[in-house]
Amino acid sequence: xxxxxxxxxxxxxREAALVAETLESGWVAQGPRVAAFEKQVAxxxxxxxxxxxxxxxxxxxxxxxxxxxxxxDDVLVPSFTFVATPNSVAYTGAAxxxxxxxxxxxxxxxxxxESFLDANYRExxxxxxxxxxxxxxxxxxxxxxxxxCADIPAVNRIAARYGMKVVEDSACALGAMISGTHEGGFGxxxxxxxHPRKSITTGEGGMILTDSEELAGKLRRLRSHAASLSETQRxxxxxxxxxxxNELGYNYRMTDLQAAVGIxxxxxxxxxxxxRRRIAARYDRLIPGSVPWLIPPFVPDGYTHVYQTYCCxxxxxxxxxxTVEAGNAFRNRVMEFLETNGIATxxxxxxxxxxxxxxxxxxxxxxxxxxxxxxxxxxxxxxLYVELxxxxxxxxxxxxxxxxxxxx
Length: 408
Known about the structure:
Blueprint lengths: L12 H13 L6 H14 L3 E5 L2 H12 L5 E6 L5 H7 L4 E5 L10 H11 E4 L2 E4 L5 E5 L11 H11 L2 E2 L1 E2 L7 E2 L2 E2 L7 E4 L12 E5 L2 H11 L7 H6 L19 H11 L2 H22 L3 E2 L7 E2 L5 E5 L1 H4 L4 H17 L15 H7 L7 H9 E4 L7 H18 L1
Parallel strand pairs: 2-3, 2-6, 6-7, 8-11
Antiparallel strand pairs: 1-12, 4-5, 9-10, 9-14, 11-12, 13-15, 15-16
Helix pairs in contact: 1-9, 2-9, 3-4, 10-15, 12-15
């Protein structure tokens, strides 16, 4: 049977050659390849510093620690995101406050956010405080989901008004832009992912981007047990020197073997991004006339979507369905039909407020998050990868047409 995966990394002989060179060098832990990869990614995104980590989750955790978040703080996180986003906040002891998203973009809803802040936080001598818990409003983590930036300029304006620190979760958004400015270029640190479902991969891996020299230095210390000397400094100095440790740190270091793969991937990032955007544009043309019950991704004016995921929504109006639950049942039948016929699809991601770990933490009086719930129940991601052919896409569309008829 013909098999079309949801995603497939794009490798050439270059990755294997650089990994072989790294093995032959004898330096396979964090070293010169990691440093080169950091510079390569930072330059592509127009940011001064890159700090590689073992994953986007650990990169986000480092940022939350560096921001100083902790017990007694509220940090706002969109509910519709992978669980790693709120987890990275929870690791610090800060309270995760889940907020709603706009189903059209899958990203944080700015009007909802403004209304929520006005209703739930009061001005105090030391900033803004939660009217119920008394927690200090400390930060917000906008997620640039599926390769589309959230409205970061608006988030920055709101954050400045309320005294919040901003950390961008750009796990999916390498290369995404607003009016020509890349994610991570709006004055906030951001965290990227190099998981195999992302545009480029190092197997596992992540990276923080920042324009702050001070923050970059702190993050580099924290990712390596907070040692006073880096491995490179030790190797280039006196062999008997051992580092001092004056704060709690972590072992979140990427290896040179992973970075070798990353360097090869970044050498073709423009080719990869152009291919993904071309395939997405063809889906955009094919879906409205063939699969009217599916809503393609929406891209606001001035935004550059890089389509880490081509995520659609079930169109309830086109199906004359009155409830999200009915649409969810239809979507699940469609996905089962496609899987049976060799086409992999996925739900976009979770509405994390519906997951046990956060549902049980939210407590009485937590707001409804209808946008996130709708995205959870109605989203469907279609196959998209560099080597997806037009014939493959045509097959996906044909099977979507069949699936829609079978699922009704």
